[in-house]
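Z., the sequence and structure:
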Amino acid sequence: MVTVDIFNMSEDVWPFIQAISDEGVREREIDENASLGDREIWCLREGEAVAICPRPVAAEFIKYAEEIRGDRVQVWVPEVRNGLICQSIIGDERFRERLGFLGRKHGGINLVSYCVSKGFYNLVRALRSEGVEVATPEAPEEKDGWVVDNFGSKSGIRQWGVEMAPGVVCRSVNTAIKAAKEKLRAGKGVVIKTNKAHSGMGVLIVRKEEAEGAEKKIAEELAKNDYWKLFPLVVEEWIEAEEKIGGGFPSGEMVVRKTGETEFLYSCGMRVTRKGEFAGMEIGAGVLPGEVEKKIEETVRWLGKKYAAKGYRGYFDVDFVAGKSGKLYVTESNVRRTGGTHVFILAQKLYGRDFQKKIFVVSNNWREMGRVMSWGEVISRLEPVRWDKQKNKGVVIMEERTLKLGRLAYVIFEEDRKTAERTEERMGELLA
């Protein structure tokens, strides 16, 4: 069977995106998600495989990826290009016929995707109705699809008995405002989250030192976008993070195989902005104390068994905050591929299943460059630190399209943490 890999990021949070009140912001969000489609190239497995991306991928970037991966990369793009890529495929008769021909030629399709969505299941049914054998190795059966929203929502994960920051689930904005006021008046910082947030939106953080005048700020912020009104809100105590432990925000990722077997993949320290946005991660020796790594793996394995028993299949992660009190709190679970899955897959491809014993990994998904740079300029400037096949280390640029937004996504592979930090500093100098 041939593997077809669909980058359908926007489908994961489509109701949330549609509830962004400002039309311009909404369209930019859809376009930014589509720009991240370049990263799907790194997720392709060996052998015959096709990446279906929401926007065209530059030929020079494909060539670059092929040189690093050491194999051929095929990218297909539907004619209709909106945020719902699975729907676009179904509605594009020529594209669908091409996909069906590919499947029949190879005895079927292993259909995988960034996330599991209604559109994904609709596409599976459409292809099967045309006589194509379709397997979904990284997705639950459609009858079990509810587990994605249940475990992957801010309110859902609170039902499963893991230790989380003290908080409540609110059904209205007014109730959430009242709950936030109580915490602030008790001298606590507060975090307000929509049931499924995205790219820093749908999360409002007010630290205890920002409490003065915060009640008005909260009310104004929650009135700006419809997504605050349409979904349950979680109001929880802000936990002061211990930055010495994985930057304060460690995480662990796991995959549930189609058989129901679970495999813990890695633990890491996340790079999180002051606004609560995920920016990248660090994997390797020295990122997390041994006892924290052990606790993370135990928690992820325990939840993985719960997910698997309810029918979930595919990737997921569990994010934590390491409190200054010494406690480790679960903050959320992303029941899909994550901001680190493509990094993990590439690291395994380049260095083997035990790459964590051989290399230190640093990723940044969204580094602001200060201005737009062309692919040629970035490649030229970063020549001294780019990944070298002979040395088997250096910087891999993960996307080309986001350069048009003035942002750079990259992964650094070095022998240890200090060397990786020096390489990242050198990158800043070369790009300045």
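The mean pLDDT is 94. The chain has three domains: 2-139, 166-237, 246-431.

Let me know what you think.
H.
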